[in-house]
Design brief:
- Helix content is about 60%, strand content about 10%.
- Helix 2 crosses helix 3.
- About 20% of the residues are buried.
- It is globular and about 60 Å long.
- By secondary structure, it is mainly alpha-helical.
Length: about 140
């Protein structure tokens, strides 16, 4: 099967976009909705939350402990945004107190895998980053 025919087959098997949704998105365009989702994923707390949920399904307080430094309010807002974007599922079970867990959707798992690749790259190259910062800060006039 050629690349062209594979792409055509994949396009034929892709469900149609919901009514009113464009066929293509451009994150560089001002009004593109993908820009908001990118902000949710790459923002300080969104990226860390997705990374933490990549490891396991977690309850709110477990997630808050894992994402060190996030306030309860910011974590709640982040989870709502990620759930709205279809990246996180909130599973609430009745009880006293209620048992609420958060997990990634298949799309959230794919996004977090790619995000963790970036995180690993950055962690592996932090000595270079720190050296660059030191050199920059040591320049005349700084």
């Amino acid at each position: 099967m050629t690349e062209s025919s594979a792409r055509t087959t994949a396009e034929e098997n892709t469900p149609p976009a919901p009514s009113g949704v464009p066929d293509a998105f451009d994150v560089f365009a001002r009004g593109c909705p993908s820009r908001t989702t990118l902000e949710h994923v790459t923002g300080r707390w969104g990226g860390l939350t997705l990374g933490a949920l990549h490891e396991d399904t977690l309850r709110f307080n477990q997630l808050r402990r894992r994402v060190d430094g996030v306030s309860e309010k910011m974590l709640s807002q982040t989870l709502h945004a990620l759930e709205r974007d279809g990246l996180v599922v909130r599973d609430a079970r009745p009880g006293n107190p209620p048992h609420v867990e958060y997990r990634l959707t298949p799309l959230g798992a794919e996004v977090s895998t790619r995000l963790l690749g970036l995180i690993t790259l950055l962690e592996d190259h932090m000595p270079e980053v720190l050296a660059a910062r030191e050199a920059y800060d040591g320049r005349d006039g700084k």
